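Support reply, case 0932

Customer input (verbatim):
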Amino acid sequence: MQQAEDFRVESQALYELLQAAKPATYAEPTLFKSWTINTVLEHLCFWNEMASLQVTDEAELIARMTAIAKHSGGMRGFEHDYFAGLSGPALRDKWHAQMEATAQIYANADPKQRLKWAGPDMSARSSITARLMETWAHGQEVYDHLGQVRENKDRIRNIVILGVNTYGWTYKTRKEIPPGPMPHLRLTAPSGMLWTYGEESTTELIEGSAEGFCQTVTQTRNVADTDLKLTGPIANDWMSKAQCFAGAPETPPLAGARYIRTITK
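Our regenerated output:
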């Protein structure tokens, strides 16, 4: 699956960024809910491993899901306890090794294979795409905290497609009915290509960079902090609360709350 390679390359870019980071920065709070880089790596490593278990050991996957539900500290508490104090470069290297293993498992998997998960079953392609999205989204707070501009590639089209496919989900998770058909999208890829989705419309339209759209649907930026141009009430409503990830409804960050820090030397 190309998505498995895209996941690996995106993760590798984050790994190379972290190799240059000072060990002390791993424990500093980022602009995402005060998660530290250690928190990010715990989360990514654990759920990459869980994605591997979807393919290799369904019984262990279900057992861990049950244990998470019973843990007094919830999901985050379980993740933290699971790594037993591992942090900094050592945690980074464990995450990297697990990422490589997960990517290899999915490279050899049937894209259409149905896999168990906490919610409905999903395809192998959907599972590894979700890992790519999570890596890209949580990677953003790392890039932001380290004062680095991420150089995106066209592999973020996977996240664009996920955003398009979860138009209805944004409303379903809020127990709302979509106000109408999905607006037309005209997005400029990192390579300069034009990506379009949805029925053509001049009255319901979202235009701008694919990066800005990805930042909005993953809630790493408020739409006001992107270059997206919104035309029409549905476009504005969707982008005000777009959510391409599973779980309970989340509120996007306030305008200006997430940004690339200026690092003074």
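We compared this against your earlier run and they match. Two observations from our side: The mean pLDDT is 97. Strands lie at 114-115, 122-123, 184-188, 194-197, 205-209, 229-231. Please reopen the case if you see a mismatch on your end.
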